[in-house]
From TrEMBL:
InterPro entries per record: Cys/Met-Metab_PyrdxlP-dep_enz (IPR000277), OAc-hSer/O-AcSer_sulfhydrylase (IPR006235), PyrdxlP-dep_Trfase (IPR015424), PyrdxlP-dep_Trfase_major (IPR015421), PyrdxlP-dep_Trfase_small (IPR015422)
UniProt xrefs under PANTHER family: HOMOCYSTEINE/CYSTEINE SYNTHASE (PTHR43797), HOMOCYSTEINE_CYSTEINE SYNTHASE (PTHR43797:SF2)
GO molecular function, one term: transaminase activity
Family: Belongs to the trans-sulfuration enzymes family.
Cofactor: pyridoxal 5'-phosphate
Top-level taxon of origin: Archaea
UniProt protein name: Aminotransferase class I/II-fold pyridoxal phosphate-dependent enzyme
Keywords associated with the record: Aminotransferase, Pyridoxal phosphate, Transferase
CDD domains, per the entry: CGS_like
């Protein structure tokens, strides 16, 4: 029997990985390591022998975190980076070259949309945005230069859940890499590999960090894609199944300097140990809050896949084993009532993060999505009546009492 999720998250691949038998893998904070000989140094730099040389390229504390992430996703290998955005940008810069395009869900985190439109597009990498629940639109957007499909497991803020069976079937048929941003679900709620993704990405800043302790990102190659189909990896085909990780490590990650700090890797590893416990509580709290909000007169609508009324309820049940994450959105009559609601909160904090142990609230259209036109916001499911909550692990009655008193004054 293979060990369960928390056992793997706590023990990793087992004892014996840390030379002094420290139970917490230590923080190797320095920049560089020395070599026993010039020959050994040459062997490492030419790629013949793995060793730690320089922390921008590899670091033992970061490596320990990467190994746990690969284990939890049942992946082939993992690279930890400085943030969730670094996970997305370095992945795409590894897989794509000018002239290539990707098809992406239009329901996206604002930073991701901005990366695609403002950073990748001037480099000649085009993104074709589609409603991810429309297979015909996905098919119609694909052409000979399409290399990947990008989506979020539960989109932020309107909690759109893609049908992985359907999207991965399309990706397979066209030999496209299916990249899943699993930040909202974490490896605890969602097995990206079992549901047909090829690469799982995480902003580990969110749930994995252990409650907003540190920034981080993780890229996991799930070992399912035949990399010989990707022109940008041409020089790396000799690495076979490791071609993606090889180019990522040897070029994009190293040369863009997107490394994770060893201090942060330490916190992220600690966070992983309690991920399952926290996610259980987060999901339980979020469901109770969604149900409460759905019964309030002032609330026009609630988006949460855990509500039977959600169009994504069945898909979420199938893909996330009866848990629905900690993010929900609800709508109030107008922007002014949203602001009054936010300003009356006493326990919940007004903050743009998610995945904190504290419950957080924000007005999406004037914060994360403020740079986008009303039309672009609409395509991402945002308008000025939407409040997003990131539910924490406080006692649920206290969160609900705070929501109740805030709603009473709008
Ligand atoms: C926060 C977030 C990101 C970006 O992560 P950072 O760690 O802030 O760079 C990407 N995708 C999703 C779904 C997110 O919620």
């Amino acid at each position: 029997m293979s060990p369960g999720f928390s056992t793997r998250a706590i023990h990793g691949a087992g004892p014996g990985t840390e030379p002094r038998r420290a139970l917490q893998f230590p923080i190797y904070a320095g920049v560089a390591h020395d070599f026993e000989s010039a020959e050994a140094m040459g062997a490492t730099f030419s790629g013949r022998k793995a060793a730690f040389a320089y922390s921008r390229i590899a670091n033992p504390t970061v490596d320990a975190f990467e190994k746990k992430m690969a284990l939890l996703e049942d992946g082939l290998g993992s690279v930890a980076v400085s943030s969730g955005m670094a996970a997305i940008s370095t992945t795409l810069l590894t897989l794509l070259a000018a002239g290539d395009n990707i098809v992406s869900s239009s329901s996206l985190f604002g930073g991701t949309f901005s990366l695609f439109r403002n950073v990748l597009s001037p480099l000649g990498i085009e993104t074709r945005f589609v409603p991810i629940d429309d297979p015909d639109a996905i098919e119609a957007a694909i052409d000979g230069q399409t290399r990947a499909i990008f989506l979020e497991t539960i989109s932020n803020p309107r909690t759109v859940v893609p049908d992985f069976a359907e999207v991965s079937r399309i990706a397979r048929a066209h030999r496209l890499v299916l990249i899943a941003d699993s930040t909202a679900t974490t490896p605890y709620l969602f097995s990206a590999k079992r549901h047909g993704a090829d690469i799982a990405l995480h902003s580990t800043t969110k749930y994995i960090s252990g409650g907003a302790t540190s920034m981080g990102g993780a890229i996991v190659d799930l070992g399912t894609f035949d990399w010989s189909a990707v022109p940008a990896l041409e020089g790396y085909h000799r690495f076979r199944e490791m071609a993606f990780i090889a180019r990522l490590r040897k070029e994009v990650y190293r040369d863009t300097g997107s490394c994770m700090s060893p201090y942060d890797a330490y916190l992220q590893s600690l966070g992983l140990e309690t991920l399952a416990l926290r996610m259980e509580r987060v999901c339980e709290n979020a469901r109770a809050i969604a149900e409460f909000l759905a019964g309030e007169d002032a609330v026009r609508s609630v988006d949460y896949p855990g509500l039977p009324s959600s169009p994504y309820h069945d898909l979420a049940n199938r893909q996330f084993d009866g848990r629905y994450g900690g993010v929900l959105a609800f709508s109030l009559p107008d922007k002014a009532s949203c602001f009054r609601f936010l300003n009356r909160l006493r326990l919940m904090r007004r903050s743009s993060n998610l995945g904190d142990n504290k419950s957080l609230a924000l007005h999406s259209s004037t914060t994360i999505y403020v740079e986008f036109t009303a039309e672009e916001q609409k395509a991402m499911g945002v308008d000025d009546t939407i409040i997003r909550l990131s539910v924490g692990i406080e006692d649920p009655d206290d969160i609900i009492a705070d929501l109740r008193q805030a709603l009473a004054g709008i």
